[in-house]
Amino acid sequence: MDYMIGVDIGTTSVKTVLFDNVGKVQGYSNNLYPLYQDVPDMAEEDPDEIFSAIVDGLTTVLRKANLSKGELKGVSFSAAMHSLILLDENHKPMTRAITWADNRAVKYADQLRENGVGKQIYEKTGTPIHPMTPFTKLIWLRNEHKDLFDKARWFVGIKEYVIYKLFGVLKEDYSIANATGMFNIFKMDWDDQALELAGVTRDKLPELVDTTDTVSGMNEDYARVIGIDPDTPFVMGASDGPLANLGVNAIDPGVVAVTIGTSGAVRVVTDKPKIDPKGRVFCYYLAPGKWVVGGPVNNGGIVFRWVRDQLFAPEKITAEQMKIDSYDLLTEIASKIPAGSDGLIFHPFLGGERAPIWDANARGSFFGLTRKHTRAHMVRAALEGIVYNLYTVLIALEEVVGKPVSIQATGGFARSALWRQMLADIFEQDVTIPESVEGTALGAAVLGMYSLGLIDDLSEVKKFVGVTNVHHPNPDTYEAYRTLVPIYIRLSRQLQTEYKAIADFQRSQDAKKKAAGKDL
User: Fold this and answer.
1) Sign, Cα dihedral of 365, 371, 375, 379
2) Which EC number applies (predicted)?
3) What distance in Å separates the CA atoms of residue 243 and residue 440, rounded to the nearest whole number?
4) Which regions of the chain are under pLDDT 70?
């Protein structure tokens, strides 16, 4: 039997998954690493800790599988977008990996959006202007850490660093490059205007290659540790968002993938690049003739975790003592409250927001609180607020690519029947839950199979993905949600005028506490 490994380099862990040639999982490893947040708005990771996690994951999976020679056909990568690492002339990291969640470039993102230059860049790159992007991070570093910026020889992301460590070549796939905010999606090359603004020349960036490109000839020391033939082909792969669509069989026109994990996203595949005149959605490359248009949100399951930890700490302890899942307990509590939470609306912007408002200063809020509202109302409103926000992304997406034909929903939230039904009710459309374990890693593996000629077309992913549940919208909820969603949207626009003011105040308070030596 033939086997393929998909390696998914995520924000908090790397998942290494061994698939057989019918898409069944035959091996799995999940290796965690910390996120460093030493100062306000920082979100960094240690690239060598991530590299070690990848080596450990591959080693664990291959030792357990005990494959015969030649059975492993290849390894393919997925990686989180928007990471940035500065390397010296010896390819040694001068910084940690600055992740998509890092907001320290917010001032420069705001300036680009306000002066109109950001719109010019977005219309060529398909990447909205936001402090998440390496483009804005480089402008920030150039202005505020000039000595460090000037000493750097290379500017790369985490996947490029890992591939260099393993193979000694510096390559960057179109999909990851696309997400830097410096890649012209119509010329399939670095964008001159973006590079000039970032202060970076082409010779400081990796070689651009397609997502189907392969590398081989692994460093023999690492190959020996991992227990892999050094000539095993490694497929460059793509970024995690596009591969998540592939991994749940959402690559046909009009098939929308909605993902809610720690964060979330709404995405659809098109056959050519598409730009939103209002700049609300991204356009990222997947593979030849496959582009992914959509919007990511910062605030998915991480909001539910905040609700549990800050508002339901006693219930969390009770759940642990009873050996039941605390999230299941909270969704049971939320299910007792009617749709619409009796008029309580929650904006889930606890970590700023990306799509559709692209405002790193955005902050969360409850609106409509009365004496009759309880903590149960608050947890239901929080869950609904996450879905309201995803629905606003879908509205923007519809204006660019048309109405969806079907919706595939995945992520940790899919464990909850209440949340799945809520998605169908607010979207007013059937929601299908694909039977796809580790969809992003599967997407990487399928792209790898295609690259190595093991399958003829990416559409063959449908053979690997089944259906577990289909949820139909409940007409009894229509009146509540049709009334509340427009209020949610209007409030988002009105509050946006004050987000910067409150965010600046919070940052000043954090700075005072830090100066006084107090914990933030």
Assistant:
1) negative
2) 2.7.1.12
3) 5
4) 437, 518-520
